[in-house]
Amino acid sequence: MSKIFINEIRDRAQVDSVFLVKEKITAMAKNGKPYLTIRLMDKSGEVEAKVWDNVDALAATFDKDDFVAIRSKASIYLGKMQLVIAELRKVPEEEVVLADFLPETDRDIREMETELASLVDSLTDDDLRRLLKAFFDDPSFMAVYRTAPAAKGMHHVYLGGLLEHSLAVAKLVDAMVPLYEGLNRELLIAGALLHDVGKVREMTYLRSFDYSDEGKLLGHITIGVEMVQEKIAGFAGFPQELAMLLKHMLLSHHGQYEFGSPKRPKTLEATILNYLDDLDSKINGIRTHVGREPDNHSRWTSYHRLYDRYFYKGNGQPDEDTEPQEDPDSAARPEDAEPPHAETPAAAKREEQPKRGFRNNPFEELKGKNLDLF
Predict the structure, then answer these.
(1) What is the CATH number of domain 109-287?
(2) First and final CA of the chain: distance in angstroms?
(3) Which residues in the chain are classed under CATH 1.10.3210?
(4) Rounded CA separation 24/58 (Å)
(5) Which of 73, 103, 257, 274 has its CA at a distance of 20 to 30 angstroms from the CA of residue 165?
């Protein structure tokens, strides 16, 4: 069975391929019959699939993080691609290429590492530069920092996402600092590069992206502050106030208690980091949401559960592929709609797979590394 990638799937196509199971949920339809909702993924994206027949028997044969070979029919439902599965079987890991199944950054990892090194070298504060080098000159740490996603589902949800997001926030810092006098660029750059450092241990990503036990119990903010303090403790004479200000930025970068911040920002630099982090996260999250719907030609995206809204795709630039659509808020939300019914499979054609950010198998980068960081 040849590999068909998710971004190659087209409406009414027959999809016979292998995917990684990200989520598996059994539910009950209004008619009292059980059905199975499966979120499948590969390196090009994610797609929802349904099983309407022989549910109990099929559900017992596989679980989350398994690879499954399916025979299915694709259709557009509420603006999103969906698969209706007719056949499914579990596939052993040794029969698949792992690098085919996890999404990765479009940016070149080596170029981003060069940008990171330049940012660190640009710092004139010896203490902060030494602290950053303690992290980024460590090959074992960089093996995971350069590979980790930035989140499980909100933004930069792909290998290399943490590095890409951290660099983007640092670039926003450099765009903002010239506009306001008196800002501590050194502290802001250090905060931008370290604010999510705890995610190298909060996240697991050698299969579907999820949270580690440490991540669930402590969270990346607490883990990150611990990691920074461990490094600082190894330096003689690191300024106590500077350490306090940097750790405060990590503790407060989510902005509000209800968003998981142990502290709210109480310095100008911490406030700036909070807003720049949120800005880059939202831009990436919205763009990713729009990009997941190549077959949705309306001017509106489908409903986004996390942002609790639809997004208008027009921005005043020429747009030949969109069609008018009624106000989406006047229609039923996805959770209120009836599920689709199975259809007869049809043929699909594979297109050329686009280049991605990792030039080699990203899992090779982790072989032989100290994975205690997880």
Answers:
(1) 1.10.3210
(2) 34
(3) 109-287
(4) 12
(5) 257
Number of residues that make up the chain? 374
Is the torsion defined by CA of 213, 167, 293, 331 positive or negative? positive
Count Cβ neighbours within 10 Å for each residue of 107-132 and write b for 16 or more, e otherwise.
Answer: bebeebbeebeebbeebebebbbebb
Band of the pLDDT at 103, cuts 50, 70, 90?
A: confident
Place 352 in a pLDDT band, splitting at 50, 70 and 90.
very low
In DSSP terms, which residues pair with 197 in a beta bridge? none
The residue among 97, 100, 98, 116 whose CA lies nearest residue 108 is: 116
Enumerate the CATH 2.40.50.140 domain ranges in the chain, comma separated. Answer: 6-100
Contact between residue 322 and residue 293 where contact means Cβ atoms under 8 Å apart: no
Q: Which two tokens stand for residue 132?
A: 């950053």
- Give how far the C-alpha of residue 29 lies from the chain's centroid of Cα atoms, to the nearest Å: 31
Contact yes or no for 187/245 (Cβ under 8 A)? yes
The residues, ordered by sequence, that sit 6+ positions from 262 with a Cβ below 8 Å of its Cβ are 221, 222, 251, 252
Q: Note whether 249 and 193 are within 8 A (CB).
A: no
Secondary structure letter of residue 79 according to DSSP: T
Per residue in 132-150, pLDDT (tens digit) is 999 999 999 999 999 999 8
DSSP state for residue 353 in the 8-state scheme: P
What is the CA angle 214-216-220, rounded to 5?
A: 70
89 φ/ψ angles, rounded to the nearest 5 degrees? -145, 145
Q: Sort 134 into a burial class: Cβ within 10 Å, 0-12 / 13-18 / 19+.
A: middle
What dihedral angle (degrees, nearest 10) is formed by the CA atoms of 132, 110, 200, 373? -80
Between CA 155 and CA 161, with CA 156 as vertex, the angle to 5 degrees is 150
Identity of the residue numbered 372: D
Name which CATH class applies to 6-100. mainly beta
8 A C-beta contact, residue 301 and residue 313: yes
Q: How far apart are CA 350 and CA 342, in angstroms?
A: 23
Tell me how crowded residue 168 is: count the other CB atoms within 10 A of its CB.
21
